[in-house]
Design brief:
Layout (H helix, E strand, L loop, with lengths): L2 E8 L2 H4 L5 H23 L6 E4 L4 H7 L15 E6 L9 H29 L5 H12 L4 E7 L7 H7 L28 H14 L15 H12 L4 E2 L1 H7 L11 E2 L22 H19 L3 H16 L9 H10 L15 H6 L9 H14 L7 E10 L8 H24 L3 E6 L2 E7 L3 H23 L4 E10 L4 H19 L4 E8 L2 E9 H4 L9 H10 L7 H11 L9 H15 L7 H17 L1 E5 L10 E7 L2 H11 L10
Helix pairs in contact: 2-4, 2-8, 4-8, 10-12, 11-14, 15-16, 19-22, 19-23, 20-21, 21-22
Length: 673
Amino acid sequence: MKQYFHLTIGPVQSFVAQARRSKDLWSGSFLLSWLSAVAIAAVRNQHQDNAILFPVPDDHFMQAVTGQVDNGPKQGGIPNRFKGVTAEVTADFPAHEVSQIVQLAWQQVAELVWTNDIVPFFSAHSQFSVEQSRAIWLRQLGNIWEISWVLTDNSNASNLLDRRKNWRNHYPPAEPGDKCMMMSGWQELSGELTANRRREFWQALRQSLTVGKTDLEEGEQVCALGFVKRRFAHYFYQLQLGEQQWAAMLPANFQLKAPTLQGWSFSIDRDAEQEDYDPTHVPSLPLLAALPYMRAAYDAINADPALLSTFTLFAEKAKQQLGLAGRYVSFSSIEQRKVASKLPAWVSHLDGISYFAGSLLAGQSYQHLRTQEIVTRLNNFNKAAGLAGPSPYYALLLMDGDSLGSQMSDPKKQVGISAALNSFTRQVPAIVQQHDGFLVYAGGDDVLALLPLDTAITCARAVERCYSTCFAKARQNTGLFSTLSGAIQFAHYRTPLMKIVAEAHQLLDDIAKEQTGRDSLAIRINKPGGMHAQWAMPWSKLYPKAESQPSLLETALRVFEHKKAFVTNKLLFKLISSLEVFADGGLDSVTMMRLAAAEYFHSGEQLHLDKKQLQHDMEHIEQLMALCQLLQRQLPDKQGNSVIKLLPGLQLDGLKLIRFLATAGAEQQEELA
């Protein structure tokens, strides 16, 4: 009798989103995706007719997991839940054994970290208790995953897994002692009772690492889970689980045939001799924030070769003091400019923090270094090149498909959905790379990426267009309809990353989807003091039908950035001040436009303009006010057609957004000494 097997692995957010660095975000996402792939491999391995109905997993990722190819992908591409159909099995199919295989695979990855990092440490530091740390290690690694599954003969039963998850029977044990700085609520790994002993433990462990010494910061203490997230990438290529290894771990009465599993290296230039080696090539948040400045600096050198020596003086001092933390990260736009400007090959590999004077002078991590000379040399270059300091803001992009859940239960649409999603996820990495971003995850209809401030919105649009194109064919064949919503968080690189990730999910779910009606983009600006602005609009209103025409944001930016533009900071502040009284509604859009025009006339900006120029400027006022409209997309009909409803009131944060994008958050740029 044919059975349908459903499985999900969690927790997702509490494991992935609890991150102090961009690398933590990547590693949590990859590990969860890899464990889902292990479960899929276990199901497929039982019978040649076993197939994964939804979503169809990425072939390259699965081939890498099972050792059929040597070079595996760096990004996870398997969602944390799947539906499998098993052929020629009875109702007593031992589904619970799939969970056991997943748990054992996870423990073997963690054991690589223990063997390579922790065992040598305790061998050289007998003053600390290996038994104590080992007990913490086993307790935490054995209780993190909540794996839920169902087995049914009903192919249309799409809600069984959600119902099973509501039956909670997984409760991690209470964690004593001092807590992890990355994973909230979990005990740090040393288990030492006093602060001095914990400090000595972590300082000694950090110094004992032979590769990736920068994986642990000064004063940082993490749990076993956090340590595995930081360190597994160095040793993942050592993973080998074949028939012999499984036989040693599984009980004699185990029924399922465990799949062959093999790890891989995340970098083709693995260099174990480098103490700061990072095989993941994940860019730091300061480096992402500095990218627009780096492009501008390289362009300035290309335009005036005399600046080359001034910049090289800064770069050499930064390299000497801070090292090349970005040596394993590459961006095409930067590399092209570097070659053209004849800069040293290593210059683009500087630590991203090198460009931020405020952090160098004030940060505790750099007090032992003589950073004043770095700052002085950077200041000299900026003055000669006519550049301001870099903006400290980067972007986190989160995107998710709309209206797929209600259609996945229809067997006629499942093949079309899987084909469209496979095509989509194959194209996303190139899109993100073209925009100087780093793709954290792309699987199913989910995308998570980190980007520079100046490319985030255009990248989001490119991903949305790709999704729409992929589903267009499926819509023609099966009537399937799905759109893509997105959320962009602009954040200061010092803001805790886990806070930005958590808020991005709220921005996507509550603002882009629920409030704006899906098929929308929501943007939030997070400054050090908190949320500065929040804005959202349906894609169809933000972008005109003709792809060659600029978006409303691009049009407003061009107006603001023009040297002779009438839209000054003063005028924007006056518009906000005058209109915020009516932002909650009460006036129609025509009256609002008249108020904005009155403020413009009252500002005196129009005194020296002729009639034609005045009319031109009034058109720009209309464009600015169009960004402030409150719009909501109504639910589409069966054919996917929807209407956009104009709501009462205004979202004046659209004006704040324009100013922020035009100035790259200049009011928060770090001052040079």
